Structures are given as structure tokens and as C-alpha cells.
TrEMBL record:
<dbReference type="Pfam" id="PF02492">
    <property type="entry name" value="cobW"/>
</dbReference>
<keyword id="KW-0862">Zinc</keyword>
<keyword id="KW-0533">Nickel</keyword>
<feature type="domain" description="CobW/HypB/UreG nucleotide-binding">
    <location>
        <begin position="100"/>
        <end position="259"/>
    </location>
</feature>
<protein>
    <recommendedName>
        <fullName>Hydrogenase maturation factor HypB</fullName>
    </recommendedName>
</protein>
<comment type="similarity">
    <text>Belongs to the SIMIBI class G3E GTPase family. HypB/HupM subfamily.</text>
</comment>
<dbReference type="GO" id="GO:0051604">
    <property type="term" value="P:protein maturation"/>
</dbReference>
<feature type="region of interest" description="Disordered">
    <location>
        <begin position="12"/>
        <end position="33"/>
    </location>
</feature>
<dbReference type="GO" id="GO:0008270">
    <property type="term" value="F:zinc ion binding"/>
</dbReference>
<keyword id="KW-0479">Metal-binding</keyword>
<dbReference type="GO" id="GO:0016151">
    <property type="term" value="F:nickel cation binding"/>
</dbReference>
<dbReference type="GO" id="GO:0003924">
    <property type="term" value="F:GTPase activity"/>
</dbReference>
<dbReference type="GO" id="GO:0005525">
    <property type="term" value="F:GTP binding"/>
</dbReference>
<keyword id="KW-0342">GTP-binding</keyword>
<keyword id="KW-0547">Nucleotide-binding</keyword>
<dbReference type="InterPro" id="IPR003495">
    <property type="entry name" value="CobW/HypB/UreG_nucleotide-bd"/>
</dbReference>
<keyword id="KW-0378">Hydrolase</keyword>
Length: 304
């Protein structure tokens, strides 16, 4: 076992080699007593770039081999997928449009939800599952709109998983043919991996962040069906390159729809509500077709 990185198989080291970069100090070409010294490779010195995502696992965990990481990820996601399938059946049987809202911290997700819930109340049933590491602050803000909300605190966890969402559903009122918003933990990395049983992921990127977030965190934007560029009312005061940002989104996900909105100023919100209405209508239309097919099968069985 390598005592430098903790990995167990030299054949799967994620692109790095054991090249004696940690070595005793030398004098006249010979090793002498003293603390080990780190000698960077040329590619480490210029340009400074350490890429830990090039192994089979796509990430680095100290003390764990790439094979072990891959196996653990497979086991964890397999269990999560079972719970996600259960959630998906729950949503489909009740005609619920479930959306997984993902973003980095500070993108304005909760503010966007507050405005959306106030504007959409009375149109169809609404509920929210909130995810944060600590506090019930966001759930309290949602409940102040009059919409039911369940807070999930993940502790040190950086994402919601399907089991958490499934348990949260037990605390929500019946909301057949409604819309469920799942506000995931503010993090553009881990939530991309976990299927919650949702109909779609909606990625929110605010103009107060860097326009290159889509290419820095491509997994998340690649999996999103809709990207909301939020806080566009602040554009005149920022050095945010909007055309470049839109181009980056298309580079990682050419199929993604993109809407520009301001949850505080109201710009673009009607387009957002139109997207929600369209997705809900498509879901219900699909459910009607399924029921009609089942009805036809029953009538055929009765006639035989």
C-alpha cells in the first residue's frame, strides 16, 4: 500500500506515478539525513495544475484506491436508485410534477421559490422539500408563503438522497396533480449524482457568480433540463459576460432550455411559470393516455 496517497494498486492511481518526488535531501548527488522534501514535476511547476479527476473513479479520496471508490459509488447509487424508483412511482401515480432545484449557495433559490409560490398559489397544489446542512431558516421562509414545507438537515452531508426525500413525503399533505419543489443543498457537485425520482433537474446560476460555472461544474449542468440565469436585474452593475455564460451552458448541454429571470424584479418569471405549466400538462397528458389504455384493456377483457 502506498504510504504517500494511501492507494492500494499501482495500476489504478488516477494518473499520478510514484516517482520519488518525496525524497531525502541530497548533497553532492548523495542522500543525506534530514526531513523528506517534495520535488514537483515540471508539469506541476508550470502551469500549476493538479487534476484529481482523471482516474476511473473521476475523483480522489486519500487512503482509498480508484477501484474501491468505483465499487463504493456503485453500491451507494444502486441503493439510491431503488429509493428513487419508489419516489418516481409515488409521483407518477398521483400526477405530481417533482423538480429538483440545484445550484451553488447564494444563487437565490429560496427567493425564487418564495416568489413562485406566492404567484402560483391557487393554480395547483404546491409543496417544498428543503435541504440544508443545518437550520430551518429556508423552510420557515417557505411556510410564511402559506405553502407546506419539510426541512431536511443533512449534517455534514452535501446533498439530498432519494431515501431522505421519500421520508419527507410522508410529512407533506396530499397534493395530487400538484408541483413539488425539492430545494437541494447548495452545491454544484454531489447533487448531480443522486436521482431523487424527480421529473427534471433545474439548475440555477446567478449573475453574481462566474459565467464559467457551467464548464467548471459540467456534470450538474449536463443533467439539467432547464437552466435559470437568476438576478439579471443586477447585470448593469456587474462584469458578468452573459453571452459567454449562455455559450458555456450550450457547450456542456445543447439540449438544455435557458431562461433569464429575476426573482426580485420579476423579469422572466412568467416564462418560468409557463415552463412549469407546460411540464405539468405534459405529465398529466401522459397519465391520461396511460389510464385510457388501461380502460380499453379492461373493456376488451369484459367483452371477451
Amino acid at each position: 500500500m502506498c504510504t504517500v496517497c494511501g492507494c492500494g494498486d499501482s495500476q489504478v492511481h488516477g494518473g499520478h506515478g510514484h516517482d520519488n518526488r518525496l525524497a531525502p535531501p541530497q548533497r553532492n548527488g548523495k542522500a543525506v539525513a534530514g526531513p523528506l522534501r517534495f520535488t514537483p514535476l515540471a508539469e506541476d511547476r508550470h502551469p500549476p495544475h493538479h487534476h484529481y479527476g482523471q482516474g476511473p473513479a473521476g475523483l480522489h479520496v486519500t487512503g482509498m484506491s480508484q477501484e474501491r471508490i468505483v465499487q463504493l459509488e456503485h453500491d451507494i447509487l444502486a441503493r439510491n436508485d431503488q429509493d428513487a424508483a419508489h419516489n418516481r412511482r409515488h409521483f407518477q401515480q398521483r400526477g405530481i410534477l417533482a423538480l429538483n432545484l440545484v445550484s451553488s449557495p447564494g444563487s437565490g433559490k429560496t427567493t425564487l421559490l418564495e416568489r413562485s409560490l406566492r404567484d402560483l398559489q391557487g393554480r395547483y397544489p404546491l409543496a417544498v422539500v428543503e435541504g440544508d446542512q443545518q437550520t430551518q431558516n429556508d423552510a420557515d421562509r417557505i411556510r410564511a408563503t402559506g405553502v407546506a414545507a419539510v426541512q431536511i438537515n443533512t449534517g455534514k452531508g452535501c446533498h439530498l438522497d432519494a431515501h431522505m426525500v421519500g421520508r419527507a413525503l410522508q410529512s407533506l399533505p396530499d397534493m395530487q396533480r400538484g408541483v413539488l419543489f425539492i430545494e437541494n443543498v447548495g452545491n454544484l457537485v454531489c447533487p448531480a449524482l443522486f436521482d431523487l425520482g424527480e421529473a427534471a433537474k433545474v439548475a440555477i446560476l446567478s449573475v453574481t457568480e462566474g459565467e464559467d460555472k457551467p464548464i467548471k461544474y459540467p456534470d450538474m449542468f449536463h443533467r439539467a433540463e432547464l437552466v435559470l440565469i437568476n438576478k439579471i436585474d443586477l447585470l448593469p452593475y456587474l462584469r458578468f459576460d452573459l453571452p459567454r455564460c449562455l455559450d458555456y451552458v450550450k457547450q456542456v448541454n445543447p439540449r438544455a432550455e435557458i431562461l433569464q429571470v429575476s426573482a426580485t424584479g420579476g423579469e422572466g418569471m412568467e416564462q418560468w411559470y409557463g415552463w412549469l405549466d407546460g411540464r405539468r400538462k405534459a405529465l398529466l397528458t401522459e397519465q391520461v393516455a396511460k389510464l385510457q389504455a388501461e380502460m380499453a384493456a379492461l373493456q376488451e377483457a369484459l367483452a371477451s
